[in-house]
């Protein structure tokens, strides 16, 4: 069980899934311990994607309308992740759209109240998450593999931003940006992510990854200009934005070879 503690720590941090109790639970919620194991975020993405993807697979096979599938998937992701990343998206939008210098933008992002920019961002995000399932996934199984791929990529992007970026201030993101400057951890995160993405979606997953990397680069640049670096809200917002972008890309592409082999067996 000791070997599973790093995975349990990132799952306890990223989700509301029950973790261990007592001393180990305290360790799982230690921010510095979680930061040291951030390279395992793609593994957490695999777990989350498998749970939500299996639900989507079941209700899709049952014949539910694609828009309803999108609504249930979006709701399940928000619930299982404890609303943290969704809240971060709203805070990021509020900070980005605030008029003024970096201090004004930081203050707007840290304000617990959601502003008009945050509301608009959430509406657009949920609309996109719902509509994407109407866009044309070729099968129920394609929905399953796409959700896994998108979730793994989204978690990897957070790791990448922590590796490439600097914290805008000493705060929530600081332990992660410090820990992920380790090249071996970054290489491990990349290897884990690529393995899962390739097995789940092959070339389509790599295209989705490429789009997500472009979004991550843009977010890093914009955050540096607006806030002086990245923050916990920037990391959380990147998760939501790249998850949606990956699903959009995967919905527009034909099934890849590994997925087609699974579909043939199915």
TrEMBL record:
Subcellular location: Cell membrane
Gene Ontology MF: a single term: adenosylcobinamide-GDP ribazoletransferase activity
EC number: 2.7.8.26
Reactions listed under catalytic activity: alpha-ribazole 5'-phosphate + adenosylcob(III)inamide-GDP = adenosylcob(III)alamin 5'-phosphate + GMP + H(+); alpha-ribazole + adenosylcob(III)inamide-GDP = adenosylcob(III)alamin + GMP + H(+)
Residues forming coiled coils: none
Transmembrane stretches, start-end: 38-59, 66-84, 113-133, 140-166, 186-216, 247-265
Gene Ontology annotations for the cellular component aspect, listed alphabetically: plasma membrane
GO BP term (any one): cobalamin biosynthetic process
Topology of this chain in the membrane: Multi-pass membrane protein
Protein name (record): Adenosylcobinamide-GDP ribazoletransferase
Species of the source: Nitrososphaera gargensis (strain Ga9.2)
């Amino acid at each position: 069980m000791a070997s599973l503690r790093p995975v349990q720590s990132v799952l306890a941090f990223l989700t509301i899934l029950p973790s261990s109790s007592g001393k180990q639970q305290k360790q799982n919620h230690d921010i510095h311990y979680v930061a040291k194991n951030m390279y395992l975020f793609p593994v957490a993405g695999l777990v989350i994607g498998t749970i939500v993807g299996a639900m989507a697979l079941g209700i899709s096979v049952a014949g539910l309308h694609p828009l309803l599938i999108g609504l249930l998937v979006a709701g399940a992701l928000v619930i299982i992740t404890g609303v943290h990343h969704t809240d971060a998206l709203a805070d990021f939008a509020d900070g980005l759209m605030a008029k003024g210098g970096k201090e004004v933008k930081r203050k707007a992002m840290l304000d617990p109240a959601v502003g008009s920019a945050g509301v608009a961002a959430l509406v657009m995000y949920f609309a996109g998450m719902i509509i994407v399932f109407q866009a044309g996934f070729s099968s129920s199984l394609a929905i399953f593999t796409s959700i896994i791929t998108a979730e793994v990529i989204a978690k990897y992007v957070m790791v990448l931003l922590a590796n490439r970026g600097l914290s805008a201030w000493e705060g929530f993101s600081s332990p992660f940006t410090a820990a992920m400057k380790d090249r071996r951890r970054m290489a491990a995160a990349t290897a884990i992510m690529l393995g899962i993405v390739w097995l789940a979606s092959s070339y389509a997953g790599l295209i989705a990854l490429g789009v997500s990397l472009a979004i991550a680069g843009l977010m890093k640049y914009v955050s540096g200009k607006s806030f002086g670096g990245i923050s916990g809200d920037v990391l959380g917002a990147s998760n939501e934005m790249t998850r949606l972008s990956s699903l959009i890309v995967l919905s527009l592409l034909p099934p890849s070879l590994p997925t087609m082999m699974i579909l043939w067996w199915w």
